[in-house]
Structures are given as C-alpha cells and as structure tokens.
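Ticket #4471: structure output looks truncated?

Reporter: J.K.
Steps to reproduce: submitted the chain below (795 residues) through the standard prediction queue, then opened the result file.
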Amino acid sequence: MKVPMKWLKEYVEIPMNAEEYASRMIMTGTAVEGVDKTGEQFDKVVVGYVVSCVDHPNSDHLHICMVDVGGEEPIQIVCGAPNVHAGMRVAAALDGAHLPGGVKIKKSKMRGEVSNGMLCSGPELDVPAGLYPHIGDAGIIEITEDVAPGTDVKEVFGLGDDIVDFEILANRPDCLSVWGLARESSAVLNEHFVMPEIAVEENGKGKFEDYATVKVLDPVTCPRYCARVITNVKIGPSPKWMREYLYGAGVRPINNIVDITNFVMLETGHPMHAFDLSRVKDQTIVVRRAYPGEKLTTLDGKEHILDESMLVIADNENATGLAGIMGGEESEIENDTASVLFECAAFERANNRVTARKLGVRTEASGRFEKGVCPATAMEALERACMLVNMLECGDVVPGVYDNYPNPSEGKTIEASVSRICRLNGVQVPGETMEDILNRLYIDTELCGDTLTCEVPAFRQDMDREADIAEEVLRMYGYDHIPSTLMNGVTMAGRRSESMAFNDRVKRALVGMGLYEILNYSFISPKWIENLGVAEDDPRRSAVVLRNPLGEDTSVMRTSMVPSMLNTIANNLNRGNAAGRLFELSKTFQPAGAGELPVEKHVLVLGMFGADVDFYSVKNACMWLMQTFGVTPAIAAGGDSYYHPGRKAVLTVGETQLAQLGEIHPDVAERFGIEARAYVAEIDLDALRPLEAPLYGVKPLPKYPAVTRDIALVVDEKVGVGTMLETIKKSGGKTLESATLFDIYRGEKLGADKKSVAYALSFRASDRTLTDEEIAGSMAKILKAVEAEYGAELR
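Returned output as attached by the reporter:
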C-alpha cells in the first residue's frame, strides 16, 4: 500500500526523514518495499509568467514569448502551443531541464529565433489531468494559482512528496489504511495519534426512508450494511489536496463523489460504493445471493455469469454490483447524478475471495475484504464520507441512516502471563514495559502481579490468544534484544529420516555419474497422462484433482513422473540443448478411498537424449546405481506401452519389479514435441530401499593374474542376451571374475532367426595362478549350461 508521508503526518508527528521512518517501521514488523518521491520524472521546471507573446516572423504557428521565470530579466522562449497568450502562468522547462522519456532541454534556435527553454503541456511532464487540470496535447498547462514566477512547479502540482510503499501482511488488515498505519507509527515512534473529529451536518430534506429502501437477505455473508443518502449532488473535480493524496497513493482522481469513496477506503480501510439513486429501480437496494445464470455487467464493461454462491447488490429486479468487488454499469455515477446512496459494509472474506477468483476479478476493494474488514468501524467510515461531502460542499446529507448489524462484534479480553511471555520470546521484559507497549498499541492493558489483562480493540482481528500478545511485545521491544545462544542438550536434535538419507545417497550417486537433477511441479495437465497412451483402465489415468488449480495445465497431481521428464526434454531440445542426462527424484500421488489421503510413492526417473546416448546408456546407469546399493537385479524384456516395443526392459529382484526403462515410443515422443530419440528409466525407490545391502568391507587388490577367454555362441533370435549372461555367471564357478557382452552378429551364414552373441570372460583365483586345465573345466561347464538351457552352439 502506497501512502504519502504528507498524508500520514496529518495524524501523527514523524520527526525524521522517510528513509529513517521506513527503517523504524521495518524493525517493528511492518514491511516496507521502498520509498519513492512523486515528481521525479522531471526537474528544472518552474512557474513562468508570459509577459508578452508575438507571432514568429518565420512561422505560421510558432510564437515568441518573453517569460518571467523569477530571474532579473524575462527570457525568450519559442512556443508552438495554440493557447499561449500574454498574462498566463505556465510550466517553463529551463535550459538543462530533464523531462520524461529522456528528453533534455537545451538552448537552441527555432527558425532563426533563440529559445531558452520550453513551455510544457501536461503529457510532456507526465502530469495526469486528474492531478492538475489541463487540456492534454492540445496545448500547454495554464497555472491558475497566483504563484510567484520561478516557483518549482512540483509545489503547484502537488508533487515532491515522499511515498512509502508498505507491504501489509494478511494478518494485519487494520494497517491497510492511513489511519491504521498512523496508529501503528504512533506506537513505534511513541508519538500521539490524532484522529479527525467526525461531525456530520444533516442539511438535506426529509429522512433516509423517503429516498431509499434497503433489504439485507443474507446477514451471514453480509454481517453489517450501512447506508446514507446524499441529495443535490454537484459533480465536479475534487480539491487539490485530495487529488494530491489520491495520486500519491496510486489512485486516479475522477470526480468529487467517487474520489470521496476512494479517499475514505484508503484512509479508514473500508471500501465504499456510491449508487446513483435515479438509476436504481424503485430506489431499492437488496443484498442477496445471485440467481443461477444471472448476468451482470461491471464497471469495467465485462459481462459475468453468476451462480447462487455469489453475493450481489441488487435492485428489485437485477443485480447492480458484485458485493465487495465491483459495482455495475447500471448505477454508475455520471456527470448528471443528482442523488447518491453511499454504501459501507462488511462482507464475509471467504465468500468474497471465492467469488473474485471464480470471475477472475480482483480490485482494491476485494483485496481488502479478502483480508478482513472490521464490521465495528463501518459506520465510522460512512460518517467520515458524509463529513467530506459537507467539507467539499458537493451535496446535502439527508437525516437518518440505515444500519443493519444484527450480531455486533465485541472486543476480546485476553489474559497473559508475563513470565510465560518472557519464556516464549526468550527475552526478559519487565511487566511494566509490556503494559506500556500494549497501551501504546491501543490495547487497553492492566498489570496485576504476573498477569496482563488486555482489552483488544475490534479492529485488531488478528489477536486471539496469549501468543499474539507475546508477538506484539517482542516486535515493539525489539528483535535485536533476543540474545544469541548456542543450542544445548535440551534442544531437540534434528536429523534426516532414513528415506531422506537414502534419497540423498541416490542423488549423490547420479550426480557422480554426470547426470543433472531437475525439479518439476507435482501437479500437471491430465492431457499429459493421455499423451502417454496408457490403457483406459490404467490406474494412472485416475488422478487426484485439485479443487482450486492455477489452470488446466496444473489441475491434477501426477501419477507418473514420465510426462514431466518428457516435457523437460522437449523444452531443452526446443531451446537448442542437443544432449542431456537428467534425473528427478520426487513423489507420485495415487487416489485412495473416500476421505483418505492419496498414496504417495518415492520414484526416480532418468531421462537421456542426444547423439551419445542409447538404450545401453540408460540401462547401465540403472544397473550401476542399483549395484551401488548392493542390489544386482535381473534384466528381461518388458515395460509399458509408451516405450519402444523392441527397446525396453524391466529390472527385477525375485518377484519385485524395481525399474522399467527404454527408448520412448516415437508416437509418444511426437505427442510431447520431441523429434529426437529419448530414453527414460523409472525406478521404484520404495522397493529398492529395503533391498540395500550394507558395505561390510573392501577386498584387497588381487595378487595373481587374470586369465581371459572370449566365447561366441549361436542361439535363436528370441533368446535374451542378458538372461544368458546370468546363466554364464552362475555356471562359471567361483573363479569367474566377470562376464561382459561385447558383440552381437547376425548374418546369412548363421541362418534365419539366428544370432551370434560374444562374451568376454575373466577368470582369477585369489590364492594361485589358474592353470589351463582349470580354465578349460570352467569353460566346459558354461558351454554345457547354455546348451542345455538355450540350445546354444559354440561358433
């Protein structure tokens, strides 16, 4: 919330500059995003008095003006504005002045005549007509005040004030107002807060009931509704001081009636609305729920279709506004408005927030109602608006007021222990100091022994319990008083759980293999699961649906991490990254029974793409990772349908499937926008974790040489080379140190549906050098085993 310092100083003394003030507020818990100054867009622009104005001899539209700018002699300025004339006061940019858009004014000649500056229009100074009236690009600004030449125009336009941009948190809606911030400032600076004395002169004729009828049909979502009628309205511009304050707060001045409602909203924190009574059917205001399918066109010209959950302000026939969000076009204030109904109400925050989100409408008013507007102070804000009507002489306040407040909110009484507050905050603060702090915060407090009895005002809706009192004490006493201490034995020792530690080890292993970790959202588009092409009855198509998603692309919790990985691969390829090795370790979410939380599984997904990767790259990464944890899985053909039918595999231990991997099916890759080959592996970490084998020790380096043999076997095409490798390892005996595949050959000489598979075998004994006879015996066992199980023949 932006607040001009000049406005704040109307209610509290601030004996310091804006930067120091902002620092003091920050240190007591009121965040400040920054301090700006209005009018920084230009400099060296002063009030000038046009002494004379004659036509330029060499131009049909330029004028030569002698302008008094406060110096010893008038200066000559050439001007092309059609409205310039002798005797007017203007905004004169002097030689060396800087204007918006990077424009710099220099002394120059125009058609042979010297020009020592420039006479400016409103747009050239970026001064809106709402702040200071002007005719825009049609001519230069005419200053109507009797101001001495040479005066800085910022003073005339109401610029040059410091603007403090506060960041008000959701728990302090009372500070979303100038009064609230002034009250907070008075406590921080130990200064007196002075509120204006509100007095309304009811100078209108008749009474409220003669002009309007109000019906509140839903007091739950509208706990308080106040209204007053203003007659003989005179629409016109607001006074300069009000326009200046509104402009500094970031609100565009419009006219006196609308500006009063905006001014009161900023000053008191209560959003208001003004209805043109002549445009309200039967002069009747009805606060009700919308009818299903009811339509409303709001002030921004957009038509909305409403439902029965939404609260509206209506007349006897149609909705005329969204309660607490935005008014409708039908009752908008116009230049010919003669009678007005001022509305000041409190609406239920949850209903307001849901309605605003459903319709995609967010306004200054809705933001305040979402955080919570205090019903108890609504009448005070309404009376302040009527008081301003009296001050501006823009209408007559009709006697009488409508106030529907069936359940008045009462202030809270909280009792707090001084000793408990000290223990909670970790700072020893005397009870008398606490009492003084709380009273400065307008919380009436009495200290009796160890007990503080606190009467919390209605506007402090955030305070409910002793902990809230402790927070107020600490932030005002100063966070810098908290002593620095080391943790002791009483402090609970934090540690990572077994699953977290396991996941950390997995990540370290993958990073060591050269893979890069990625992190995606846990919510995805349901279309991504469809793009995988899984069966209609596949449980992964049944996802947890978010009630309030950011959009359709993030509307369900993911049941598989493959779509997220494929989307990441597609994004990298589209941005020119031709190769990559990635991994993501996160959770999938599967719906459980009614009323139960989703089933969460820890899953690791690997993704590889580029010219230097293939099926074996992703397979070897999975095998090496599992062997790191002491697990040696079996590999077999298989996997989901979104993998290539001839380039996929599953890794198992016994009956437990640990992983599936392979090349993504070209059709699936195309649906994700991937034009290159992509390889993916999915590893079930919840299944892998229990199988982790502890490392009991390391083996010494071998003393005796290894003996190597190559073996080439001819087998049927359908025989898996991986399963045959496992058979070789089992039948080779204890001396078989390693067995690896190094070649697969297919050719006409082998015959149809045949292939030659070559393995490199390494034999070694730990206590001796192996003899040829021992090696021959082991080779014979291997050949016998593969012949019996696969019909293999030695090539």
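Triage note (M.O.): checked the attachment and the full token line is present. The chain is about 25% helix and 30% strand.
Status: closed, working as intended.
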